[in-house]
């Protein structure tokens, strides 16, 4: 079973959290959407928080996409807007590819789809190697491995003692066993993303990696990048939820 929470009423918007996140972290984003007349649905992905760990990990983005499609059907929310964040954006893209009929629109916010890049396998391996080395030296130390991953991704600038990082540590095992090795490795072939369904969204100045991924995926989706001009960081959905809520409200078809 997947643990899901609904906030508000109106057109449904399914929120898919990123790595080391969960439904609780998306509460402010859900409330911002509800204030603008949406029915915000957030959930703990399989393996995270209060959701099942059955058959996990192993299925990667495709398994999570199947879960999301089943969740929408169970909540009578087909035809939803699907908004996935970071690695959750990869899940949203897999949902579009595997279950195009369940969503009105799929928006992937700066999706961490390393597998979409020509050199994605090498990038993935470079990130994985120090994480694997840490776990070999410290078996089961998911929090320590998470810190290693954050240090690599941030170029050594992550504050590992910040309240946000401390809050995410409870999902460290999920991000290290699932997001890092499996979800972010998902690539997308030409023709796999249904035309007219998928939008890639970024800040006005995404970091080079997210920008490169967005450029590739935009070409596959056949739609221009949706730029959130007021977004100042990758995790704007956590730091300033009004930004994306306003963006969806401005483009909503009621």
From TrEMBL:
GO molecular function: triacylglycerol lipase activity
Superkingdom per UniProt: Bacteria
Any Pfam family: Abhydrolase_1
GO biological process assignments: glycerolipid catabolic process
Residue intervals of the AB hydrolase-1 domain: 12-108
SUPFAM superfamilies attached to this UniProt entry: alpha/beta-Hydrolases
Name assigned to this protein: AB hydrolase-1 domain-containing protein
């Amino acid at each position: 079973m997947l643990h899901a929470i609904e906030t508000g009423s109106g057109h449904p918007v399914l929120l898919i959290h990123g790595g080391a996140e969960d439904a609780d972290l998306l509460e402010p984003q859900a409330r911002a959407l509800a204030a603008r007349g949406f029915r915000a649905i957030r959930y703990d992905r399989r393996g995270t928080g209060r959701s099942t760990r059955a058959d996990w990990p192993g299925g990667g983005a495709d398994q999570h996409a199947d879960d999301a499609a089943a969740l929408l059907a169970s909540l009578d929310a087909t035809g939803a807007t699907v908004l996935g964040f970071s690695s959750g954006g990869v899940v949203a893209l897999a949902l579009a590819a595997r279950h195009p009929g369940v969503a009105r629109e799929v928006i992937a916010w700066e999706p961490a789809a390393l597998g979409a890049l020509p050199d994605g396998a090498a990038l993935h391996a470079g990130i994985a190697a120090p994480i694997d080395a840490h776990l070999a030296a410290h078996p089961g130390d998911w929090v320590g491995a998470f810190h290693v991953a954050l240090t690599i991704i941030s170029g050594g600038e992550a504050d590992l003692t910040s309240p946000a990082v401390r809050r995410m540590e409870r999902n460290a095992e999920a991000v290290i066993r699932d997001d890092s090795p499996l979800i972010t490795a998902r690539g997308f072939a030409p023709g796999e993303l249904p035309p007219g369904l998928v939008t890639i969204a970024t800040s006005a100045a995404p970091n080079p990696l997210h920008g490169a991924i967005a450029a590739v995926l935009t070409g596959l989706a056949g739609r221009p990048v949706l730029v959130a001009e007021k977004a100042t960081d990758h995790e704007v959905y956590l730091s300033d939820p009004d930004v994306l809520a306003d963006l969806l409200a401005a483009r909503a078809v009621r």
